[in-house]
Write a structure and sequence with these properties.
This protein is of the alpha/beta class. It has 23 helices and eight strands. The radius of gyration is 30 Å and the shape is elongated.
Length: about 625
């Protein structure tokens, strides 16, 4: 491109229904390409800015290619989005999303809480200021004046004439062009333009200007108004827009007041209603759209990895040794044929593990009468009443029920595997359907019943248990909306419960014990297993990277001290070993060998949740 007087960028971002209709960005682009005039001293370029919907992005790129229009592409990365920091540090306690009264708040309070919790995700998905700065960096080498405008701006000749006239002002390094909202496309191309409403202006930069947009500001939070304030452009946008607890300091630009007004630019409609001309409608619609795009992106992450047969705890099966698989197959035979080991609910979970191993290795089932024996044993033990008891005790006993919670998750794993393997007669399937019905009613109770919701309030440790239960049940039932919201809340909760050094935040120190910290850590490591199975991680986001190792190190130091004082009981050993067995990554415990050499740990072999560790640890060291 030769050097020119003006280069106009339009930034094409995500549709935000109900603020903008689905497909509106594409529709506006097509209208622009077909109806906007070309001018001899004006270049045009577009920025395709992190479009979440692959079909919409593809259609936009194809349309630009078809019309041979130049563009810059900023693609959406699911991995980068998943790693965005999630925390509520700095949010006033009265606006905490973990308040028991959250669901009874007004819309404004709920929005402030949710918008703050999503702020980094918003900044990624709607990174309009980064796109504007990209336009400035690209355009200043191509033109004397660079206009990083919004996608809905339509360039009419009278707008260009105003820009030309104002650009002759030698003191002007910025041109301020008011936005004229329109009702329809016909109005835009009409010879007579009836302006009903002016709004926050667009800014055009001279190529020797020094200012850049603040990329730390998120969309909907004075992201453009902050620049206008720095330049001391007076208007309605100069008031409010931030909160004292989320305040952005006003820094006056060294080029303040070095601007000239340059008419107005037409803005294409956003949807089919009248909200474009009514601020009272635009604001709540924008808020809803901002939260909605984040929830849509969160759900998309889960959908990419969700399958009905995916297990929660039984991850990374390639680490299973042949010896362990043989031990489990033998155990299946014992329980299935009524010999030796009893068909308890926990042993039934082990049957599910063995079934998974058999399916993965494509071997024939080991029990003499086949998998049907396993199904019969399972159905004899797993009843709706059992799940209700487990669910109720996990919530009511808060963090003290982590091991029971693991058993519940394991039972759902076994059910899921049986469905996947299509085992059992029709009556067995009917029984599994009853269990699914209980899980569904339990999830509804978690979301709606005030007694259960009380368990979600606060930040430690009962709320971790509540969120894990919600995530597990919603994943089992395929309710991906609830699952994605629960994973988002889990990231917020995790960063609220631990200090940077891995030690727990203790809201009630006088009630705290090491056992509580240990069991709460077990809940989080279980949650991490589930989260990873759906393509995300609680512990590797940019805000919590390395936290898992620091948490385990802190627990290990505490346990070592208690071991020296002989203050550790069997249950603590069981919990610690289960925690290490489930922990992802390569963390190596300094006290693991010491724990395993203790005489009483040899009796843990087939009766504790330590069996969850068979996927990553060698059980033969525990066998006498």
């Amino acid at each position: 491109m030769p050097f020119t007087e003006f280069i106009i960028y339009r930034i094409l971002g995500n549709d935000l229904p109900p603020r903008s209709s689905l497909g509106q960005t594409l529709k506006n682009l097509q209208f622009t390409l077909e109806h906007e005039d070309d001018f001899p001293d004006v270049q045009k370029k577009w920025i395709v800015n992190r479009i979440l919907d692959p079909a919409q992005e593809s259609a936009i790129l194809e349309l630009l290619e078809k019309h041979e229009r130049p563009y810059l592409h900023m693609p959406f990365s699911a991995e980068d989005y998943a790693n965005e920091v999630c925390n509520i540090q700095g949010l006033p306690e009265e606006l905490s999303p973990f308040s028991i009264d959250f669901h009874s708040w007004g819309n404004r309070e709920q929005y402030l809480s949710m918008e703050f919790s999503f702020r980094n995700k918003i900044r990624y998905l709607c990174n309009v200021n980064a796109a504007r700065n990209l336009a400035l960096a690209d355009g200043k080498e191509r033109a004397r004046w660079v206009a990083p405008w919004d996608s809905g701006c339509f360039l009419r000749e009278e707008t260009l004439n105003s820009l030309r006239a104002s650009s002759s002002n030698p003191n002007a390094r910025y041109l301020i062009t008011l936005l004229a909202r329109t009702k329809s496309y016909d109005e835009i191309i009409a010879a007579e333009f009836n302006i009903e409403m002016f709004d926050e202006p667009q800014i055009t930069f001279r190529n020797d200007s020094v200012e850049r947009f603040n990329e730390t500001l998120r969309y909907g939070y004075s992201n453009k108004a902050e620049m206008l304030r720095r330049l001391q452009v007076r208007g309605p946008w100069d008031r409010g827009g931030t909160h004292s607890w989320d305040y952005q300091a006003r820094v006056v630009s060294p080029e303040a007041k070095c601007y000239a007004h340059a008419g107005w630019v037409a803005r294409m409609p956003s949807n089919s209603d009248d909200s474009d001309l009514k601020s009272s409608m635009r604001t709540p619609q924008r808020r809803s759209g901002i939260i909605g795009i984040c929830e849509t992106a969160d759900k998309a992450l889960v959908e990419q990895n969700w399958t009905p047969e995916r297990a929660f705890l039984l991850a990374m099966p390639e680490r299973v040794t042949e010896d362990v698989a043989s031990m489990l197959c033998d155990f299946v035979a014992q329980v299935g044929n009524g010999r030796g080991a009893k068909a308890t609910p926990y042993n039934t979970f082990l049957l599910g593990i063995a079934m998974l191993l058999e399916a993965l290795s494509r071997k024939e089932p080991q029990p003499g009468e086949g998998i049907k024996d396993v199904v019969d044993s399972f159905q004899a033990q797993v009843t709706p009443q059992l799940l209700e008891v487990l669910l109720s005790s996990s919530i009511e006993k808060s963090g003290f029920a982590s091991l029971k919670l693991l058993m519940l998750i394991g039972l759902l794993d076994a059910i899921r595997l049986m469905r996947h393997l299509n085992t059992g007669a029709s009556q067995d399937v009917e029984k599994l359907d009853k269990i699914e019905s209980i899980c569904r009613s339990s999830l509804l109770a978690l979301k709606a019943n005030r007694r259960f919701r009380r368990a979600s309030a606060g930040t430690y440790p009962h709320s971790s248990c509540y969120e894990l239960l919600t995530a597990v049940l919603s994943a089992y039932l395929g309710d991906l909306d609830v699952l994605s919201r629960s994973l988002h809340r889990a990231k917020l909760l995790l960063n609220s419960q631990y200090h940077a050094d891995g030690s727990p935040v203790l809201p009630y120190p006088e009630l705290h014990t090491f056992s509580i910290s240990l069991e709460n850590a077990l809940i989080w490591i279980t949650f991490e297993r589930l989260s990873r199975s759906y393509g995300q991680s609680l512990f590797t986001t940019s805000g919590s990277a390395g936290l898992l190792d620091r948490m385990l190190t802190w627990l290990e130091m505490e346990l070592q001290e208690k071991m020296e004082l002989e203050q550790v009981g069997n249950r603590t050993f069981e919990t610690f070993l289960t925690l290490l067995a489930l922990a992802p990554g390569s963390y190596k415990s300094k006290v693991y060998d010491s724990v395993l050499t203790r005489e009483h740990c040899r009796e843990l072999s087939w009766r504790s949740p330590l069996h969850l560790g068979i996927l990553s640890r060698d059980l033969s060291r525990l066998k006498a």
